[in-house]
């Protein structure tokens, strides 16, 4: 039985990969979840990609997940003459909310509230921080600034406001339209950009529930306010994305690595998946192999215990999308077979609302280590069992059997979890017998291997896990 990676790979779909053959090849190379970036593309293009992913799932008997990434309140400069002008340190420049064609002294922004949000002394970063200006004063329409770091200012480059409390909501009008589309397509995960507080998550969850859907939420951590509220955000969301691109512009870049490690640890303790994103293999947009530094970056995310690592432009617009997934998969595979990354057996707090079931699942993970079990099996309708067992990072493979069809693809984001649709729950013994046959059929276990079964009794009732059984395959 060959090694199957436990750390999952998210691949972003774009012009370089939005076709059947490439998506099929990305899946074969090791991609588990596909990210649709709603900063780009039409609903028709995204719908076509969703249909392709589901076709590949059906043809290849896979459970590829779909993540919709909402654009959020992206603040940009407007059009600039000649598509680029030089701004020089020490010179004045005005940013206006009037729709003018920009020059070296006057540039527009698409964000109408910018003059009301900023105050004197605020830093404004443009083009991922390559350009920097500081606010002198604002009159409600024009922001008068001085250039600190100059360079070529190009059309529609992003603006970051690291010192400013931005008044824009996390969900823009465009996001709401895109959300309605994503919900109609039953996407598995919805990533919310520029989350600043748990209230942003509550708003999105309310909209999902009103639509009668069960999509799960990924909170993208990109703002200093998110770091200040990180515990409350983790509590409110279903997963976290460490979006290092904007985060590394909004806060000093040297604090990002430590915060990345903190967020991975916090998410493991909270049993919430955590994704490490942005520039993981940036050089592979142009080159067929990653740099040594990029290899180390991916490796450190795996060693820290991240649930997933993500590729952005590497697979969306790069020259070597399949190579990028293969390289990432190879790094993951080697580390998982050679490094000590398993058995994070956290103690369960006594005030935990699911103290009993959580301790039982902790015992399942601990028992799997002690008896060298090949597999831990959870029967679940909510996914609770899968998230909880995965948080302990057992060496044993984790298999989830569920009647909930959408849960199967949602769990593709979770560390180590593989899911099966199972609707024949008649009796406990018959169910466990069926599960053993399925795992043997798919070459996950063989005679003599030990399986640890967990379930909620009685099987047909929805409830917390309350049963643990150890079994040797015959």
From TrEMBL:
Gene3D superfamilies in alphabetical order: Phosphoenolpyruvate-binding domains, PK beta-barrel domain-like, Pyruvate kinase, C-terminal domain
Domain of life: Bacteria
Keyword list, A-Z: ATP-binding, Glycolysis, Kinase, Magnesium, Metal-binding, Nucleotide-binding, Pyruvate, Transferase
Top class in the EC scheme: transferase
EC number(s) recorded for this UniProt protein: 2.7.1.40
Domain Pyruvate kinase barrel intervals: 5-325
One Pfam family it belongs to: PK
Named cofactor requirement(s): Mg(2+); K(+)
UniProt GO MF annotations: ATP binding; kinase activity; magnesium ion binding; potassium ion binding; pyruvate kinase activity
UniProt domain Pyruvate kinase C-terminal: residue ranges: 362-471
Pathway given in the UniProt record: Carbohydrate degradation; glycolysis; pyruvate from D-glyceraldehyde 3-phosphate: step 5/5
Catalysed reaction equations from the record: pyruvate + ATP = phosphoenolpyruvate + ADP + H(+)
Family: Belongs to the pyruvate kinase family.
Entries under PANTHER family matching the protein: PYRUVATE KINASE (PTHR11817)
Name this protein carries in UniProt: Pyruvate kinase
Organism per entry: Algoriphagus ornithinivorans
């Amino acid at each position: 039985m060959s090694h199957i990676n436990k750390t999952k790979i998210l691949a972003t779909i774009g012009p370089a990969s939005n076709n059947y053959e490439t998506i099929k090849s990305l899946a074969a190379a090791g991609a588990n979840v596909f990210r649709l970036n709603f900063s780009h593309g039409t609903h028709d293009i995204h719908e076509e990609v969703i249909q392709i992913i589901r076709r590949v799932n059906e043809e290849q008997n896979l459970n590829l997940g779909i993540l919709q990434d909402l654009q959020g309140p992206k603040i940009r400069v407007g059009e600039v003459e000649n598509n680029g002008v030089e701004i020089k340190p020490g010179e004045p420049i005005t940013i206006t909310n009037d729709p003018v064609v920009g020059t070296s002294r006057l540039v527009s922004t698409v964000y109408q509230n910018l003059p009301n949000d900023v105050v004197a002394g605020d830093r404004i970063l443009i083009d991922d921080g390559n350009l920097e200006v500081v606010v002198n004063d604002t009159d409600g329409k024009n922001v008068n600034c001085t250039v600190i770091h100059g360079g070529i200012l190009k059309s529609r480059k992003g603006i970051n406001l690291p010192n400013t409390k931005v008044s824009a909501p996390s969900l823009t009008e465009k996001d709401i339209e895109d959300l309605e589309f994503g919900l109609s397509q039953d996407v598995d995960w919805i990533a919310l950009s520029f989350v600043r507080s748990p209230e942003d998550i509550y708003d999105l969850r309310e909209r999902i529930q009103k639509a009668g859907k069960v999509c799960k939420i990924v909170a993208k951590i990109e703002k200093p306010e998110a770091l200040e509220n990180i515990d409350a955000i983790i509590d409110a969301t279903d997963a976290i994305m460490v979006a290092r691109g904007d985060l590394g512009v909004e806060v000093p870049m040297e604090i990002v690595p430590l915060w990345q490690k903190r967020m991975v640890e916090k998410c493991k303790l909270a049993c919430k998946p955590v994704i490490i994103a942005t520039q993981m293999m940036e050089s592979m947009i142009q080159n067929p192999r990653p740099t040594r530094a990029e290899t180390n970056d991916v490796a450190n995310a795996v060693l820290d215990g991240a649930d997933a690592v993500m590729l952005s432009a590497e697979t969306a617009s790069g020259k070597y999308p399949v190579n990028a997934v293969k390289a990432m998969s190879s790094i993951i595979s080697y580390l998982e077979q050679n490094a000590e990354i398993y058995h994070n057996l956290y103690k369960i707090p006594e005030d935990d609302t699911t103290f009993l079931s959580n301790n039982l699942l902790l015992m399942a993970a601990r028992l799997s280590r002690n008896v060298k079990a090949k597999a831990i099996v959870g029967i679940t309708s909510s996914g609770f069992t899968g998230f909880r067992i995965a948080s302990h990072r057992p060496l044993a493979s984790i298999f989830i059997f569920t009647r909930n069809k959408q849960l199967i693809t949602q769990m593709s984001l979770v560390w180590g979890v593989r899911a099966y649709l199972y609707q024949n729950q008649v009796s406990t013994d018959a169910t466990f017998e069926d599960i053993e046959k399925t795992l043997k059929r798919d070459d996950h276990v063989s005679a003599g291997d030990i399986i640890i079964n967990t379930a909620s009794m009685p099987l047909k009732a929805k409830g917390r896990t309350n049963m643990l059984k150890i079994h040797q395959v015959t």
